[in-house]
Write a structure and sequence with these properties.
Blueprint (H helix, E strand, L loop, with lengths): L2 E5 L30 E9 L2 E12 L2 E6 L2 E8 L2 E8 L2 E10 L2 E10 L7 E9 L9 E5 L16 E3 L4 E6 L19 E7 L7 E11 L3 E5 L9 H6 L6 E7 L4 E4 L10 E3 L3 E7 L13 E2 L2 E3 L10 E5 L7 E7 L16 E10 L8 E3 L3 E8 L2 H20 L3 H11 L1 E6 L5 E8 H4 L4
Parallel strand pairs: 1-10, 10-12, 11-13
Antiparallel strand pairs: 2-3, 2-9, 3-4, 4-5, 5-6, 6-7, 7-8, 8-9, 12-24, 13-23, 14-22, 14-24, 15-16, 16-17, 17-18, 19-21, 19-23, 20-21, 22-25, 25-26, 26-28, 27-28
């Protein structure tokens, strides 16, 4: 049986990054030969900037092994003093710390192979993360009252949930208006959230199952321009007076969108709606400036991919404790690329279920439908986005299907389907799709 919780704000973890509240449950470690074994949340102070990573440790008496940020970890613990070494192709780090009261505290020497004589030095603390207690999934009814215009790791969580939980909520449109048409906040893709997901740590993947995505008002806004990436010199002259606001009527019964003030040739023009979310994002690490909600990147963000619809599943990287999930920028319908610069912008009724894939980080956003897996590529040019999508899918196939480089080419060559998802914003988007029925033949 599912429990229903009605809440406008989380009572716990109100500020996920203020001294790591997830760690408050961690108990003092026993003095055994396996005292360090477990998962740890590592908090770094890198010259005044706090950032995070997860570390999985296995202890056998004085010998330590494990993984850290995708790297192999080796070291030793003696008389309460810990020494660890993590190394990869770009360099690596050494950790020296003491263990007291269940907390590791010490220093890091961060090596760069290109400048081995000048390593970076900073401090860290780490606390073992308790295993989550099994419980029944909870259904949350969340009415947003605050909306954010940055995908920031520093924004206060709106609600704390656990893997398996479902959230039913609403989003406002890109201009800041809600389902009644009331302006709630300055425009620019304001976001609902962020949602803090218990047990989600850096190095994990956040899974977002979109179970409901419905229109909740009878109009949408767009304009009559074509973005500059879609214009040659001749078309640019013809479109020089474009950019005026256009209002669309949404027929919620018929499921169509039509112009409220059509032109001579568009009086009968109507198009089926396909509700979608333009923005789904996890917070990037605080080592980078928080991107605005019109931007996109490895964290997701303003991807404007018109197949992020009801019934799809998104996979996003976790970069901070709790992931901090943002959603917004609902579209009644959008053609490939968001050619007008605005889709049919509207508010939305949204429900989604959360899960976490522990210890596996997706390099860039991925989407799964009933028929396809889809790897997103986002970059400053279509060439860059095309390369990113190909690399993202190649890594997916390598991890899940263990394909060799030769086999990757043999699979992708005849089966790859590419779509241009976004051309309106700073980053362009290209999506590489593979049919699931083709993948079933792989073993």
């Amino acid at each position: 049986m599912r429990h229903q919780v009605r809440s406008k704000a989380s009572l716990g973890y109100l500020f996920a990054l203020a001294a790591g509240p997830l760690l408050a449950q961690a108990a003092t470690l026993p003095g055994s030969a396996q005292a360090l074994t477990g998962r740890w949340l590592v908090t770094f102070d890198i010259h005044g900037t706090r950032t995070f990573a997860s570390m999985d440790i296995e202890q056998h008496n004085e010998k330590i092994s494990g993984t850290y940020d995708g790297q192999k970890l080796e070291g030793s613990l003696k008389d309460g003093s810990l020494h660890l070494r993590a190394q990869d192709e770009s360099g690596g780090e050494t950790f020296d710390a003491t263990l007291k009261g269940g907390v590791l505290a010490g220093s890091v020497v961060d090596y760069d192979n290109a400048d081995i004589d000048h390593p970076d030095r900073y401090t860290f603390t780490a606390t073992r993360v308790p295993e989550p207690h099994p419980r029944e999934p909870v259904h949350h009814e969340f009415a947003p009252s605050v909306f954010y215009r940055e995908f920031s790791a520093l924004n206060k969580p709106a609600l704390t949930v656990a893997p398996g939980d479902t959230i039913h909520t609403t989003t406002i449109d890109a201009g800041g208006a809600d389902e009644t048409g009331q302006r709630r906040v300055l425009g620019g893709n304001p976001q609902t959230g962020p949602f803090y997901i218990e047990s989600a740590l850096p190095g994990d993947t956040l899974v977002v199952h979109l179970t409901r995505l419905r229109l909740n008002r009878d109009y949408a806004l767009s304009d009559d321009a074509i973005v500059s990436r879609g214009l040659d010199s001749g078309l640019a002259v013809k479109m020089k007076d474009g950019g005026k606001s256009v209002r669309w009527h949404l027929d919620l019964t018929k499921g169509t969108a039509s112009l409220e003030k059509p032109g001579e040739h568009t009086a009968q023009y109507a198009i089926p709606v396909q509700p979608m979310l333009g923005c789904v994002a996890t917070a990037p690490a605080p080592t980078r400036a928080a991107p605005n909600t019109g931007d996109s990147g490895t964290y997701g963000g303003n991807m404007d991919f018109n197949e992020i619809t009801e019934g799809t599943t998104l996979y996003l990287p976790v970069s901070v404790p709790g992931a901090l999930l943002y959603i917004g920028d609902g579209h009644a319908v959008q053609g490939d690329g968001e050619l007008n610069g605005n889709a049919l912008e509207t508010s939305m009724d949204v429900e989604f279920t959360i899960d976490v894939v522990r210890g596996r980080r997706t390099p860039s956003p991925r989407v799964e439908s009933a028929t396809h897996i889809m790897a997103m590529g986002l970059g400053g040019s279509l060439d860059d986005a095309f390369r990113s999508a190909t690399s993202n899918m190649a890594q997916w196939l390598t991890d899940d299907y263990k394909l060799t480089p030769s086999e990757l080419a043999e699979v992708l060559g005849p089966a790859a389907q590419y779509e241009v998802s976004e051309v309106a914003d700073r980053n362009t988007g290209v999506v590489l799709k593979l049919r699931k029925d083709v993948l079933k033949t792989l073993h």
